[in-house]
Write a structure and sequence with these properties.
de novo design (two linked rop proteins); 23S_rRNA_IVS_sf; mainly alpha
Length: 125
């Protein structure tokens, strides 16, 4: 098992957090507290879920939650762009990162779902 910090999905999630931190910094104060903090918190939670999935024997639940939180981030980023809190180019860069994370998480989930369970298989009578 690789260290979670060495995984490409972790690096992509960290990159998203870096991008989001800059986006939130430039938001007006009232939106920074509501939308900005939620986006940042969801990004941090995604990084935690990468760690949890990496160490868990049953990865699917963690990866499903990660994908759900990624949808929340994309929704809030879209709202930020629609309200002109986030520039279109910055939005595009953040969505590029979320797409990368989503593809990696889905691939990891498919791989984990297809992996045979260890121990306890077969007839032991």
């Amino acid at each position: 098992m690789a260290l979670h910090t060495q995984l490409p999905i972790y690096r992509a999630a960290y990159s998203l957090l870096d991008v989001v931190t800059d986006l939130v910094k430039n938001m007006p104060r009232d939106f920074k507290r509501s939308i900005g903090e939620k986006i940042s918190a969801e990004c941090i939670e995604i990084m935690v879920l990468v760690f949890r999935a990496n160490v868990a024997s049953e990865k699917s639940a963690h990866l499903s939650e990660l994908l759900e939180r990624l949808q929340v981030i994309e929704l809030l980023l879209r709202l930020g762009m629609d309200k002109r809190l986030i520039a279109r180019q910055a939005y595009a860069g953040a969505i590029e990162q979320t797409t990368s994370i989503g593809k990696q998480a889905n691939g990891w989930k498919r791989s984990a779902d297809n992996r045979p369970l260890r121990g306890g298989q077969g007839f032991h009578g």
